C-alpha cells in the first residue's frame, strides 16, 4: 500500500497547488528525490521562466546543458520573461528548430513577412521549439547594453529587429492573458501599426502594460492605435509613451534593413464597442493632450473604470474636463494624478473629486506641486470623500516644499495609509505646528505613516549647552519647555495609532532664512527625546514611553538614529530592553548607518531576536 506522501505526489493537481508556495530551488531539489516526484514537479519547475540576465547573473541561455533540458520541457512554460539579448537568441534558436523540422512537423513559422535578417552564428545554437502555450509574457527591451552577454547577437542592437521578434513571439501565443512590454522602441507610425496589429489578435488578454519609447510628432494617432486595438475583454490597461533620448542612433540602426513586404500589415482592426470589463487604466500619455475631445474619445470607451492613473496638463478647462471624466467614469474609487515633472499646482484632480459621487474615493495619489492644499476649495474636494479615503500618498515636486496635513489627520477617520514623501531635495514636508494643531488625530486606523516634519530641533539659547550635555539636574529654559511640550503632543498622538505597522519620520531642518538646509539632510538625525525613556532624577526628558501602544510595529525608519550626539548620551540598555518588551514584531529599524557602529545594548537586542524570530535589521 502506498504512503500518503506517494498518493499526494501522484495527484498532479495537488502538486500544482503546492509548488507555487516553494522557492524555485526547493522545487528543483524536490524533483531529484525520486522518479515519481521528478515526473510530478518538472511541469512546475519550468512553468515560469524568467531570463533577465546581467554580467553577474547568467540565464538559462548561458548554459548548453540547461538549453538541452529546456528543449525537453519547453511545452511546460506558461510564464516567460526576457530581455533584448535573450529575445534575439531565442528567436535564432526557434529559427534553427524550424530549419531542422521543416516539412516534418506543423510548427508555427518563425519567419514573418517583415522580419530582420538572420544573425551570424558566432557560437553554438540549440534548436528550441516555439513556446506557444504562454499565458503571461514580460519583455524588458530597449537597445542592448549588456556587453558581457556570451550569446550577444547583432539584431539586439536593432530596434526594428527587436520589434519584429517580439511580434513573432506574440503571434505564436494567441492565448496570452498578461502582456507586459517595457522600453519598446517604436521609430515610426508604421512600426506602431505593426505592433498594434498583433496585440489586436489577443482575444483572451486581461492585463496589458505597454512602455513605448517614441519621438514622432503623430503621438495622438499612435496612442489611438494602441488603445483601440485592445479587445473588449481587457481588465487592466497601462500605456506610457516617453520620448527617445537617442532617436538619431536608433533610427540609423533601424535603417540597416528594409524589405519590400514591410508595409503589408498596415490595416489595424479598430474596436468599436466599449471596454466594459476595464477597471484599471493607467494613461500617462495624456499629459500632452489639451483637447477635451481627445480625452473624451478615450474615456467614453471606459465606463467601468475603478482605478484611474493619469497625467494631464490642463489650465482653464479644468472644470470641463473634470466634469467630463467624472461623468464618463463615475465608478472611480482610486485616483492617481500627476508626476514629479509638474511645476505648478493643477486643480484638475480636485475637480474630478468634486464631480464624483460623494464618499466614494478610497485612494488618492498626487505627484507634483501640492502646496495649495491649504486652499479651502481643495480641502472641500477632499472632504467630500473623508469617510471613505483609506490611502493618501503625496509625492513629487522638484524642490522641498511645505504643505498642510491637518486635514488628513483630523478629518479622515478611516485612513489606513498616509505618505507625505520627501527625498534628499524634492518632495513635501509638514511643520510641527501643523501636525500638533490637528490634535486629536482621528485617523487612528493608520497602518503606515510616513511624514517629513520641520521645526522639531530643540532651540538652544546663546552660550548654553544642549540639554543632554548639561550637568544634572538639567534645567530647561522656557522656550525648551514649550518646545518639548509640542514634541510630546506629537509622540502621544503617534502612540495612539495602535494598528501602526510602518512608521517613517524624517526631520527637515531649516536655515535662518527659512529655507530647507539640504546639506543637513544627509547627516544622521533623531527626533529629540523620542527614543529615550528619560530620567526624572537628572531632569532629562524622554518620551519613548508614549510609544508603548505600537505593539504591531514592524518597520521604523527615517530620523531615528541612535548614533547621533544626543542619542549616544540618552539611549542605552533601558531603551533596548523597553523596545524588546513593547515592540515584539519589530524587524527593521534604521538605528545605525553601519553594523560596526552598533552599541552593545542593540547587539543584544539583535541577537536575542535572531534566536527567537525573524532576523532584526538595525541598519539603514
Specify the overall morphology. globular
How far do the termini sit from each other?
Answer: 56 Å
Largest sheet: 19 strands, parallel
Percent strand: 15-25%
Helix content: 25-40%
Q: Structural class of the helices, strands and pairings? A: alpha/beta
Task: Give the tally of β-strands.
Answer: 19
Rg computed from alpha carbons, rounded to a whole number of angstroms? 29 Å
> What is the assembly state of the chains in this entry?
single chain
Number of helical runs? 21
Low-confidence stretches: 252-265
What is the average of the pLDDT values? 82
Descriptive tags:
620 residues, alpha/beta, 19-stranded parallel beta sheet, 21 helices
In brief:
The protein is of the alpha/beta class.
Structure write-up:
It comes from Linnemannia gamsii. InterPro entries: LRR_dom_sf. This is F-box domain-containing protein. The protein has 620 residues and is of the alpha/beta class. Helix content is 32%, strand content 15%. The protein has a 19-stranded parallel beta sheet that branches. It is globular, with a radius of gyration of 29 Å. About 2% of the residues have low confidence.
